[in-house]
Design brief:
Blueprint: E1 5-7, H1 8-19, H2 25-31, E2 45-47, H3 48-62, H4 67-72, H5 81-88, H6 93-107, E3 111-118, E4 121-128, H7 137-155, E5 163-166, H8 175-181, E6 186-187, E7 192-197, H9 198-201, H10 210-228, H11 234-245, H12 253-260, H13 264-273, H14 278-294, H15 301-307, H16 313-324, H17 328-337
Parallel strand pairs: 5-6
Antiparallel strand pairs: 1-2, 3-4, 4-7, 5-7
């Protein structure tokens, strides 16, 4: 991801949320020079100037200064991508937000969040860089509301900030802000942010899973390393995309080709030139994942099947018979008793 850029998965979340308000997002994306096909590529990123322009166009087309408040109502947790998985498996909301701060550059290098103790809570201050143009207030509002919406979703209950601060002046009708933020923001403030109570931050998350948290941290660490080290071959790029998408189910070749910006036949030919195929890469990625996950007895076999993108545990069993000539349980017993290094591919 280049300097001052935002990941495609976050931009796709913005596009989907604005589309739900009735805006013609195909037209707006074209005007903002945002390639709609690349939105499916988790490794793609867009310059922050394009995101700033997209919000300016959304404001102009809608004629609604509160467009970000309406758009945020339809935002989905998937907008956080792999970072969201790491946050979900955290022990409490405080550690989830710590992970957000630590891994934010995967989502955007045009954003920063600072946690500052404040009274009986912590203020989370949002900074955004819009490039040559100033960041619109709508972009700040959407990002803050999206963060709060994820906190509510992962807690599984209502969450009311102790305070919300916005740098822009108070609108003629502030009531939509009270409804959206669950408290009346302080307008004309020095920074944009929200203060969350200590009791909420320390509340245990129902999705807490220490073993998955460790796996997600490792996966996100690999993702950060990949961002710093551009991949040179199609084989490397496809393997990374497959690994990222497996928990959502087996990715299709058409979707991967679209994400790479090439025709499906072109992708197939490039992989053949590199001595492999799309089907082989999925199988290899799953097998390597099985070797890692089955060696961790804390993970149930159902969880391993989910992480590898299998529709059922039975599919995992059949794959293990083919890979290792044994069941997942038998492989685990052997791996735990005598760790076996991954097989060369």
């Amino acid at each position: 991801m280049s300097e001052r850029s935002t990941s495609a998965i976050w931009v796709r979340g913005i596009v989907d949320a604005l589309s739900a308000t009735g805006l013609d997002m195909d037209r707006l994306c074209a005007e903002a020079a945002i390639d709609g096909l690349a939105l499916a590529d988790a490794s793609a990123a867009y310059p922050t100037e394009k995101i700033t322009l997209l919000w300016q166009l959304a404001l102009a087309r809608s004629g609604d200064p509160a467009i970000a408040l309406r758009a945020a109502e339809g935002v989905r947790p998937a907008i956080f991508g792999v970072v969201g998985y790491a946050m979900m498996s955290s022990a409490n909301l405080s550690s989830a937000l710590e992970r957000l701060i630590r891994y934010l550059r995967i989502i955007s290098r045009a954003a920063a969040v600072r946690a500052v103790p404040q009274g009986d809570g912590t203020a989370f201050m949002l900074e955004l860089h819009g490039g040559a143009a100033p960041v619109s207030r709508q972009r700040f509002e959407f990002d803050l509301l999206t963060m709060l919406a994820f906190c509510r979703w992962v807690l599984g209950r209502e969450l009311r900030p102790l305070a919300v601060s916005l740098t822009h002046e108070a609108p003629p009708d502030p009531q939509p802000y009270l409804q959206a933020f669950r408290c009346m923001p302080q307008f004309g403030a020095r920074s944009n942010g929200a203060v969350l109570a200590r009791a909420d931050l320390e509340a245990a998350l129902p999705t807490f899973h220490p073993q998955l948290a460790e796996l997600h941290d490792r996966f996100v660490g690999d993702r950060i390393e990949a961002l710093e080290r551009p991949l040179s071959t199609y084989t490397q790029r496809v393997r990374q995309m497959v690994a990222e998408r497996l928990p959502e189910g087996e990715p299709g070749r058409t979707a991967i080709a679209r994400a790479l910006g090439v025709a499906e036949r072109t992708l197939q030919r490039r992989l053949q030139d590199e001595g492999t195929s799309f089907h082989a890469l999925i199988d290899e990625t799953r097998r390597e994942g099985a070797e890692r996950h089955l060696a961790q007895p804390q993970l149930s076999l159902a969880e391993v099947a989910y992480l590898l993108g299998f529709a059922s545990q039975g599919n995992l069993t059949r794959a293990c018979h083919r890979w290792f000539d044994m069941t997942p349980g038998q492989y685990r017993t052997r791996a735990v008793a005598e760790p076996v290094p991954p097989q060369p591919m």
